Amino acid sequence: MDSSDSAPGGSVPAGINVIDGVRSSRKITHIILDLDGTLLDTEAVVQQVVKEILERDYRKEYDPAGVEKRLGLRPIEGYQHVVDDYGLPCTAQEFMDKTIPMMKQRYPSIPQLPGAGRLLTYIKRHRIPVALASSSLRMSMQLKVGAHEGWPEILAVSVAGEEVVNGKPAPDIFLKAAELLKAPPESCLVIEDAPAGVQAGKAAGMVVLAVPSLPKKKHRPLYEAADAIVASLLDFRPEEFGLPPFDDYICDALPIEPWYLGGPVIKGFGRGSKVLGIPTANLPTSSFQDKMAEHTCGIYLGWAGLRGKVYKMVMSVGWNPYFDNDSKTVEPWLLHEFEDDFYDEELRLVVVGYIRPEANFPSLDALVKRIREDGRIAKNALEHSPYAEYGQDAYLTTPLAENGVQSS
Ligand code: ADP
Ligand code: RBF
Ligand code: MG
User: Fold this and answer.
1) Measuring CA to CA, which residue among 151, 156, 158, 102 is closest to residue 132?
2) Of the ligands numbered here, which is closest to the C-alpha atom of 319?
3) Which residues does the UniProt record annotate as the domain Riboflavin kinase (predicted)?
4) Average pLDDT, the chain
């Protein structure tokens, strides 16, 4: 299909979003959602609190390597791992009691994961019966959900960790959620980020979509049981489960809250022009770590400001699975032929649309073809609302102040 054919409100381009293809043909009528790590980015806050307590009360250095074991479990079970791993002279309950006032303070500021708000809006609009099945305490769950407008109403049916006998990976919590929905388990789709949650959903006889919060290749076997895996909620294609499709794609891309990035162009791996024939102007991710954590890897479109002029661009954010890089890069391809290169020069980006997740390809040729298609999608979409307007954004052409600090 020519991307210029697509009208506003078009559907998601087929075939590239679900990483492994959906391994179930069951028709889904109900959705059961996990909260932490699936809808909300709770992990950073939990890790920060655990780190602070370890340092302050036990003079221990925090090691993020232990996170895997805790993921998806009920808090008391998760903190038992912390107590054991660090050999702490306290019980899991005592450790948890220290976390509660600290967590309470931070719950309201826990950010939504990409695509979470959009998914809930979709669920509400299509009146899909939905339940929340969260391992956390009801008190915590209410504080976290309550911080986001409209969420308490949409997620009115819920089960908390203390309301079942056995926590994930046991099926109890999902079975209880299905019971509240009066839904047969086999018609329920569970959406989960944690291996323990995926196991629980399968043990309950449900279809499970994994949105791994352990995204590295080495973690993939932990998600073996899932019926489908997507990189983020943005890549969920409900029609593959018999649900109505999203209809918020415009010109083959998904409008997003714009993000603003800038910095001097740095050297990449040196293969953009040479190997692919597609030059990409790499930016130093160290200067916007927070933005990198907030957004998923994937292919985006937007506007680039260089030497006081504005250009269309299409950009890759991530690990380049085809090359299996071990660092995350941000690399826009400016859709313009330049006479010379522009290393060390200040480049500004306003990113306004999401096209697709990063993917692996069977050949270099297939990768290049797909990148050129992304370029065509960007070129076209940026002619249209709501993407086109941002080409006027002053951020793109505002020069750096004398001291090198960005003025916006
Ligand atoms: P590297 O691996 O160092 O990023 P590339 O082969 O990807 O090398 O080439 C990128 C460089 O080419 C950019 O840093 C920039 O200076 C230059 N360049 C020329 N034209 C473009 C373009 N249209 N888009 C992006 N970069 C371009
Ligand atoms: N690399 C991948 O491994 N998988 C991809 O899906 C992918 N998509 C890209 C899309 C665009 C628009 C651009 C500009 C690059 C993409 N790349 C992808 C990155 C490409 O591998 C990288 O630019 C080169 O390796 C040069 O560093
Ligand atoms: Mg490059």
Assistant:
1) 158
2) 2
3) 254-383
4) 91
